[in-house]
């Protein structure tokens, strides 16, 4: 009874299993494997084998997932366990042969596939295994691999001699603890010994074949220094070896017979990336990224745990890619790839050359078409479209290899020059417009808002409604700046960075980039870019209420524009100078604008008593919070009228804030008998807001 009670208690404590757990985790693992999430699938297979260790299908599934995750040793262990359960299962035998091939044991895999072909011909797993193994073996040691040992004979001989030298003179590790040095003998005693045995030493030197040059170290009399040009006849100069002198390894290798063969791939400093591209294709970029990720300053952060996790993930990914590359290299050695490239048939070479020329012609045609479109849009003053096409041509040139676009640098230089001209074309006047509309263009260029933009102005119209994320554009430009090589490209990028930073009110940084743009433009002798940069600096000075520096920059731009013989540009800059001279910076401050408008309203009143009453009301309004204060700017809708006419809209060329221009409303004219009581409705409205 006691044992039965204990068994019942143990069963009560045992956790209830999920219904169908014998197959649930296994099938989940297979499903996730089909979704190519191998690391996640391995967890389910491990759980399935933990529940049912003798499940052959679970062992097969885990071996497949491990092989896909480049864990060939674990996959082989699972296959061996499954074979112990059923040694004649052909599916397991096919998996074993495949895993052996993936582990680069080609001979053993070939034997396994050949033994199992008579047992099963369809599906052709074993036939395909034989073909793969034969191909890998032929690629390594067959005729199709060429003569790699012969071609690399010099390198092999050099390595062999180096190994012999290292065996004869093994590396000795010296202790860091300095030993006590013995006292040197007196120099006079040494000279006495040398003089007494001089004749015997000379006889020994001549017998051993020592020349005067070689025994100079032992003969102190030969260490005489002679001035330059006064050496005696037969005197030889020598450079003695020192601790800093470098001896090439080839000096230790005896000269051999002339050998005409050499490796097909010569030594290059970029051989690592070159080989990675041959085997990993586009994934070699991922390998480079993972290798340099730990040194990327953007990865380091105060979150040490997260930083360590990112670095560990990068190490694991780099290790997996390197291992995969070595596996692919074992199947197709690098010397085999180079031999196949050099031994192509003449017909294939001709066809490849024709295809290359065809692609080159199509590429040049497309680049010329984009360049012509840019020029045409600049002539038609479609600046926004021209800038978009310039970005497209820049991306096209960057992604096109130079073998297909030999004149890539020339196209890029043309793009940079045309972009500078496109920005310069924005600085133009339309003489058919009114004076205030012409000034609005200049206000917009200087960053000063206007009350209402002209609806039909070509400069305003093509950039209207275009949203630009300035901070995102700054990041893109900074990344391109790190890769820039030519001065013209640096000029364009510095100009854009200055423009972007000025838009987000980072004026000091924008000024620095504009100055750099001027320096690079002077190196290229491109006046258009210099004028563009100076106008950005003018805009910055206006935003910072610095009239003197703004006038100085505009005057310099005028002198440069005269060198271009562009009268319209000179006219635009001269009008800009006049705008800068009369610009009222106080208009940019809200309180000054309100005070100025209040004075204008008071002057409009006819009766003296009404003026005093309005002035008193304005003084009472000035002490109220801005949120409760009535706006005295033009365009206010009167409360005693409901209808609004389009003709009553007020227009002004004076610069205003964005909020004021957006909140501008209509004002209407009183009719009939109300015209006699001019200004009374306005007074009632002010009184209502004050009280």
Automatic annotation (TrEMBL):
Keyword Ion transport in record? no
Against PROSITE patterns, the record matches this protein to:
TPR (PS50005), TPR_REGION (PS50293)
Keywords, in A-Z order: TPR repeat
Q: What is this protein called?
A: Tetratricopeptide repeat protein 25
> Which InterPro entries does the annotation name?
TPR-like_helical_dom_sf (IPR011990), TPR_rpt (IPR019734)
The answer on whether this UniProt entry bears the keyword Lipid biosynthesis reads: no
> Which SUPFAM superfamilies did the record assign?
TPR-like
Organismal lineage: Eukaryota, Metazoa, Ecdysozoa, Arthropoda, Hexapoda
- TPR repeat residue intervals: 22-55
